[in-house]
Task: inverse folding
């Protein structure tokens, strides 16, 4: 059986498994559907949260971005794990004690107004839709490779399948299906990493392999990689920061507090049986997330090394990378390159007409390096590798067995579909319930609410898909923007709702609007108004990253600071919080007396 | 708030503060601000600053959550506000 056949087979088996478990579990109990994790062992609950959390951005995109960024890629690693510490200590136990189902419901009660909950819904919608755009980018990559079609066709097919998956719906809420998805996902991620680590360093554990010596030498892998990339004019792998230390710092902060502000993560902690469980379940979730996240740097570094090794035969021996016959002859390129060329995500352009592929950093301004490039007759880097393909292509680049390549495809599809579908469900309930029913049409029937939810889901998938065709960045970068939006709006308001007894509704609302407003302004200046290409206006403001050299993906931190400042300023100018709200905040701080979650779902 | 309640909240905030200090030092401290300096030290094949940024901080995050959960359980017991 060929690669394509095995891929269909493995993907088919995994999906049959999810659906089978869904049917089995649904027959077992319907309560399970609503109270995710009720009565489920915390360890399994942690796995399910892990599957929920790790999306196309984590699985497909992140390691590829790290491979390109080197050390600076750590901002994704620390940012998307460190937030769980904040979540476990600052939010989860108190939100659990509060006993509401959704974030807007919390805002409505704590800030005693429908206005506050409406503002929160709008912020959540903005963040969630941006998040889905990133997911659709990843879905497009996975489907285009899986079906051997162009990237845009992949996105169209992905849109249709995600829609069906989300409407089919309930599957998402069943913990055991997610446990199965986690298992597929983590196997798909770690198995190739183990193979490659074993092959390069002789150590089967990728986390240790990354810190080991190369097979048959006493040079460490990272040191070797540093030399390779520098030979080709790229910045040193282990020290290259993301733009600047300040930018890397605020980028990491933005992802961390965004994690603690995104609804689809927080919601899981609302429904654990006890306050005590809310604390430790964040820990278990992080254990299972960390298995992938600590493997990712090894995947990144090793994929980068294997890519250079494939294109330029001189890099491993430390020979002359500029020698004419060191570069790969295009006609002799390996099959994986041909397969990815079909998708349009890998492109070769023979700039100097020698029939060979030169892949190096053509933006390097170092005169010595430029002299060598000129002497070799290189006319610019000829290979364009979309970073989002690195993880999926990784096992192919390393020439691993076909079943491993197929497994990775299955894992990528599971990651992309599950999170995209989950977000769509969150969006549809936010629009149909929190916005329409609670605010504008209180007499909406249950049937009408369901219909409105489906229409909302269809609309957001079309919007996200179209914007995903010309995404504002790589999948993980776009998702980072979504985190920035959540960081600048939801996180500060939640924090103040729990830790300040005096924060009033005016302060919270003004803070959220100011925080997300300034963040959206900065992002849209760079990426186009509502991410529509051609509407960027950053040049009118002083060029890219005009504020202290901070990139738009990292701006959520600045938005959060603005949020806090505006909130406290407005609070001091307006009527104080009613006494019963202050009492309620005191009650929330103590675990005793927690009751089962109430409120409508 | 009763005196006990005030003391309880104080104990909780102190724990959160301590955990956050460690959380900050390993990630933003060792992983970002001090990374160039720490990179002169090696942990196996890893430069130490790079290791904290791409490996170490994540292990410590996991440990921190469990330590926090355990200590909170003790504080809850001590002030008798735990769930049954």
Result:
């Amino acid at each position: 059986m060929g690669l394509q056949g095995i891929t269909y087979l493995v993907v088919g088996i995994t999906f049959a498994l999810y659906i089978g478990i869904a049917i089995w579990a649904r027959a077992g109990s319907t309560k399970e559907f609503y109270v995710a994790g009720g009565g489920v062992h915390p360890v399994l609950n942690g796995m399910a949260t892990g599957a929920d959390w790790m999306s196309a951005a984590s699985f497909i995109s992140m390691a590829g971005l790290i491979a390109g960024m080197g050390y600076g890629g750590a901002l994704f690693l620390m940012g998307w794990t460190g937030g769980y510490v904040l979540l476990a200590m600052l939010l989860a136990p108190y939100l659990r004690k509060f006993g509401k189902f959704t974030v807007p419901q919390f805002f409505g009660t704590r800030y005693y107004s429908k206005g506050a909950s409406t503002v929160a819904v709008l912020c959540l919608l903005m963040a969630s839709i941006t998040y889905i755009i990133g997911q659709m980018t990843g879905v497009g990559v996975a489907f285009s490779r899986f079906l051997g079609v162009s990237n845009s066709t992949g996105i169209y097919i992905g849109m249709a399948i995600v829609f069906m998956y989300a409407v089919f719906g309930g599957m998402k809420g069943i913990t055991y299906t997610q446990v199965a998805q986690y298992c597929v996902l983590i196997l798909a991620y770690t198995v190739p990493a183990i193979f490659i680590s074993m092959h390069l360093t002789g150590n089967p554990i990728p986390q240790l392999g990354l810190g080991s010596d190369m097979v048959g030498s006493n040079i460490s892998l990272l040191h070797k990689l540093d030399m390779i990339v520098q030979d080709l004019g790229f910045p040193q792998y282990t020290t290259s920061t993301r733009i600047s230390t300040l930018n890397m710092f605020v980028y990491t902060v933005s992802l961390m507090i965004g994690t603690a502000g995104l609804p689809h993560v927080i919601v899981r902690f609302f429904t654990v049986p006890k306050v005590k469980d809310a604390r430790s379940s964040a820990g278990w979730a992080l254990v299972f997330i960390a298995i992938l996240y600590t493997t990712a740097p090894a995947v990144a570094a090793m994929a980068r090394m294997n890519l250079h090794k494939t294109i330029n035969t001189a890099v491993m021996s430390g020979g002359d990378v500029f020698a004419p016959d060191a570069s790969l002859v295009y006609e002799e390129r390996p099959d994986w390159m041909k397969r990815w060329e079909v998708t349009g995500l890998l492109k070769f352009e023979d700039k100097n007409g020698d029939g060979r592929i030169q892949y190096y950093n053509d933006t390097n301004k170092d005169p010595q390096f430029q002299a060598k490039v000129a002497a070799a007759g290189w006319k610019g880097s000829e290979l364009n590798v979309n970073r989002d393909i690195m993880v999926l292509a990784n096992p192919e680049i390393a020439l691993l067995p076909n079943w491993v390549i197929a497994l990775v495809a299955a894992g990528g599809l599971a990651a992309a579909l599950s999170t995209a579908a989950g977000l769509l469900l969150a969006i549809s309930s936010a629009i149909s319930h929190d916005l329409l029913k609670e605010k504008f049409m209180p007499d909406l029937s249950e049937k009408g609410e369901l219909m409105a939810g489906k229409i909302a889901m269809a609309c957001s998938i079309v919007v996200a898909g179209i914007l995903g065709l010309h995404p504002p960045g790589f999948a993980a970068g776009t998702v980072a923007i979504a985190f920035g939006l959540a960081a600048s709006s939801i996180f500060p308001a939640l924090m103040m709702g729990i830790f300040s007894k005096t924060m009033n509704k005016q302060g919270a609302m003004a803070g959220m609007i100011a925080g997300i407003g300034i963040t959206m302004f900065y992002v849209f200046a760079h990426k186009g108004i509502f991410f529509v290409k051609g509407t960027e206006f950053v040049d009118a403001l002083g060029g890219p990253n005009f504020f202290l050299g901070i990139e738009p993906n990292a701006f959520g931190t600045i938005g959060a600071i603005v949020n806090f400042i505006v909130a406290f300023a407005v609070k001091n100018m307006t009527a104080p919080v009613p006494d019963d709200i202050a009492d309620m905040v005191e009650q929330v701080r103590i675990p005793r007396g927690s009751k089962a979650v109430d409120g409508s779902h | 708030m009763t005196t006990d309640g005030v003391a309880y909240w104080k104990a909780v905030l102190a724990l959160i503060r301590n955990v956050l200090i460690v959380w900050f030092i390993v990630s933003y401290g060792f992983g970002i601000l001090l990374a160039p300096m720490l990179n002169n030290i090696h942990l196996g094949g890893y430069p130490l600053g790079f290791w904290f940024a791409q490996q170490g901080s994540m292990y410590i995050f996991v440990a921190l959550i469990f330590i926090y959960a355990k200590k909170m359980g003790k504080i809850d017991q001590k002030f008798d506000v735990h769930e049954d």
User: Anything to note?
Assistant: The longest strand of chain A covers residues 346-348. The longest helix of chain A spans residues 402-440. Residues 37 and 45 of chain A are 6 Å apart (CA to CA).
